[in-house]
Amino acid sequence: MQNLNIRNRIYDFIGTLPKTISVKAYGSSVAYQSGYKENEKKQVDLIVIVDNIKKFYEENLKINKYMYKLTPRIYFKLATVKGLKKHASICYTTHIDYGDDTYKMGVIEKEDVIDDLLNWRTFYIAGRFQKEMFTAISDSEIEQANEINRKNALTVALLLLDKDVPTVNDLYEKLCSLSYMGDNRKTFKAEDPNKIKKLVEGSKDYFDKEYKNKTDLFKEMPNGTIKVDYSKVYIAMKKLPKSLYDEIQFSIDVKMSEEETLNSIRKTINSYLTRIIKQSSHGQTRKGILTTGPQNSISYALEKLKKGRKKEKLNN
């Protein structure tokens, strides 16, 4: 019932915002994660998708001034569209207290969402959209692009799955881990080390619905293991974002054995995702000082670090 109640409160919150195209909520506040207490207060993470990011901030600064401390107010007032779109094209504001909840709100233009979903330029949006989310306001073009994003994520996860006898949970954990490759949160242990496992356990029905039930690339056996059809996976690989597929093509050679080819593909995918995620993650961290204010930025980082290390201690 808690998720249902928080979803109603999210509708109330976004009703106070300027016009939006789509709004999605993600994280443990809306998608159950094992290990969390039902009454544990969680930050509500929102991605607010708009037509014009500069116009959104101009209007929101007038009607919701309380959301911004001094530094962000100055930044959003003076920043150009190019500045707002720097790094991963999204601007976050943290510590927004509304009613009983605290929000972290990322604002991004629709064209940049679709671009990342289809082309994986930063993987910042693509990685988040591959997991369970609550869609408060939907947009058909974004949903269609995300279908392609999820299909590509499944292809990559199957290629990276290196266990001899993998289970469907192993596959889902591999899929969830994609967005953490090269991320600051993992580098500085600012996340629960078992978060990926908990995500899969809590969102098993979602992953079955969006991945297992929509593909013929693998088949789950009665004992929970999976059988991968690599002939179909290699065909699906050709539909990956062009920049990634081009790097894969460059890395393999007709003289390679089947095992060498697969290892080369895995190495290339790992390198590609780590590189683009690291770049966008570091950039967003620096930009966060301006979009949230130095105090909120430091406070948010310390909260994440404290929470991650607390979970690590409990798990050991």
Record the SSE blueprint:
Layout: H1 2-14, E1 22-26, E2 44-50, H2 53-63, H3 70-78, H4 81-84, E3 91-98, E4 101-109, H5 110-119, H6 124-129, E5 133-137, H7 140-160, H8 168-177, H9 184-187, H10 195-202, H11 204-210, E6 218-220, E7 226-228, H12 230-237, H13 242-251, H14 258-292, H15 294-315
Parallel strand pairs: 2-4
Antiparallel strand pairs: 1-2, 1-5, 3-4, 6-7
How is this structure best described in words?
- Helices cover about 55% and strands about 15% of the residues.
- The model has no long low-confidence stretch (mean pLDDT about 90).
- The chain contains 15 helices and seven strands.
- A hairpin with a 5-residue loop joins strand 6 and strand 7.
- Strands 3-4-2-1-5 form a five-stranded mixed beta sheet.
- The chain has about 325 residues and is of the alpha+beta class.
- The protein starts with a helix and ends with a helix.
- It has one domain.
